[in-house]
Specification:
alpha/beta, six-stranded mixed beta sheet, 351 residues, 16 strands
């Protein structure tokens, strides 16, 4: 089974992702797909992934705006990447023909067929953009309110008690030291989607999971950042999953692949309930009196964020339906036999 992540996710400023860092890695070669909606980019990548699943370690990166669609595939052993390079995650080659190659699926469409429906295509495209901008405004509001909750939690942290817990946990895990320093890679495990706030839990199969239960974000963020520093200082590579709804760096999950170890947050967004986990009640690291004095404020924040998250997802769902309408026009104009040939040639080039 392939590892699954999102290519990125919504932030207060719109789409935010770190996949460009994967493309920049010196030993990787990348195929960047260009082309409009419905040109077969996701289907092509699914065929590439399916072909290599039994031959390589495959990592799939999904679209947070449409979790059924692939935005990228990484083949670890072959050092190959294929990725959707169109908006909102635009990628351009830095070393064209040397490290990156552009594959333009627009070469497979009949422009005459598109021109016949040009007015409708422009109208639908503008409507889709309007709903995505509306989603961004909801996320901006979410960020502001959640930041207030985070601030309340941070001010109430029982630092000595929390640090003592981290020290004990590290001793329990018995992490072997190394002369090398581990690397931090961003892997988006959770994201706001048209189906709500979604976590790709399939990726956690085979992991020993510590579930951090935290209603205020700050305690789990501090714990995860402390663990990240310790693991990397002892030579372990770490996958960090940030909570992009905040306008500053907040960690939501942490994976240590070599140790098959995962630290996963269950917060007001994820509300995760997982079986066979080791639960960590982060609430015990907050000053109860401090939280009690701000109970009404926290309650108001929780309700507002619940409503905003629901409305943001609904708006994304409407945007997705509009996008599906747009795809129909491009599908009718495509020569998918040509796309199939491009797919076959791409697979051959990856062998």
């Amino acid at each position: 089974m392939a590892e699954k992540y999102f290519l990125g996710s919504f932030s207060p400023e719109g789409f935010k992702g770190n996949f460009g860092e994967e493309i920049k890695k010196s030993d990787f070669r990348t195929v960047i797909l260009k082309g409009g909606a419905g040109t077969g980019k996701s289907s092509l990548m699914k065929k590439v992934s399916a072909h290599f699943k039994d031959k390589d370690e495959v990592v799939e990166f999904y679209c947070s705006s449409d979790p059924d669609s692939l935005d990228g595939v990484l083949l670890k052993s072959r050092k190959r990447i294929i990725v959707d390079g169109t908006a909102p995650h635009v990628f351009e080659p830095t070393f064209p023909g040397v490290k990156e190659k552009i594959l333009n699926l627009g070469d497979c469409w009949d422009e005459r067929k598109l021109c016949v429906s040009s007015d409708k295509i422009i109208e639908i495209t503008k409507e889709h953009k309007k709903h995505m901008e509306r989603t961004k405004r909801y996320v901006k509001a979410l960020s502001s309110i959640f930041s207030d909750t985070y601030s309340i939690g941070y001010e109430g942290i029982l630092t000595q008690k929390l640090n003592g817990f981290v020290d004990r946990l590290i001793k329990k895990l018995a992490i072997k030291r190394s002369f090398n320093h581990g690397e931090i890679s961003i892997r988006q495990l959770s994201a706001l989607t048209p189906q709500g706030y979604k976590t790709l839990t399939d990726t956690l199969d085979g992991y020993e999971i510590y579930l951090l239960k935290d209603s205020y974000f700050a305690g789990s963020d501090i714990i995860l950042k402390a663990l990240c520093d310790i693991f990397t200082s002892r030579g372990k590579d770490v996958y960090a999953s940030p909570l992009n709804i905040f306008d500053h760096t907040v960690y939501e999950h942490l994976l240590i692949p070599e140790m098959r170890l995962a630290f996963i947050s269950s917060n007001p967004l994820t509300a995760l309930r997982l079986d066979n986990v080791k639960a960590i009640n982060v609430h015990r690291f907050y000053d109860k009196q401090h939280l009690s004095q701000r109970k009404s404020r926290l309650k108001l924040n929780k309700k507002a964020c619940c409503d905003l998250t629901l409305e943001a997802s609904r708006t994304m769902k409407t945007a997705l339906k509009i996008h599906d309408e747009l795809e129909k026009y491009y599908i009718l104009a495509m020569d998918f036999d040509k796309v199939g040939t491009l797919c076959k040639n791409t697979i051959e080039s990856f062998k």
